[in-house]
Amino acid sequence: MAYAAADSNKIHTDVLTKARETCYKARGAFYACLKKESNKNLTEIAYVGLLYPLECKQCRNEYVNRCRFSWVKHFDRQYCRNTRVQTLFDHMTAKSDKIHTDVLTEAREACYKARDAFYACLKKESDKNPTEIASVGLLYPLECKQCRNEYVKQCRSSWVKHFDRQYCQNKRVQTLLDDKGSTRGPSNIKPNT
Description:
The relative contact order is 0.06.
């Protein structure tokens, strides 16, 4: 009795293996047809929203007849997911490099131009009383407000803060360097001679 049960399991396993192989073969034929006919109009719809051309209908029917329904749904979902991911990847790698490079270069140049115009205005109007407050404590005169607005509009806020900090730091250093005559630090230190 135990011997007969073992034989029936072997036969059952062989039948399942053959059924699985026929299913995989039919699935492969259908997906190969999809790939080959990818430029055709997608008129037929499968279970999970998979669209396929009329030319692949015979392969689809063979695939559905050879595989379990749950397997067909699973394989179709997997195919749709992989196709979406591949499409996104192709789109990102094919077109984006040139477009983003050009856009970023133009945006950076516009930002630098607006920044330079604002700082030139600050230098030109340095004798005026600063009444406006920018980021990081930078003060500027009312005459430079339009340049400032253009600068803030053209540049990322993180860049504006960075450039303003840089400008303030450079201005402090320049002020210290310009104070040649004033004595700084303890007066009792004498230079070595």
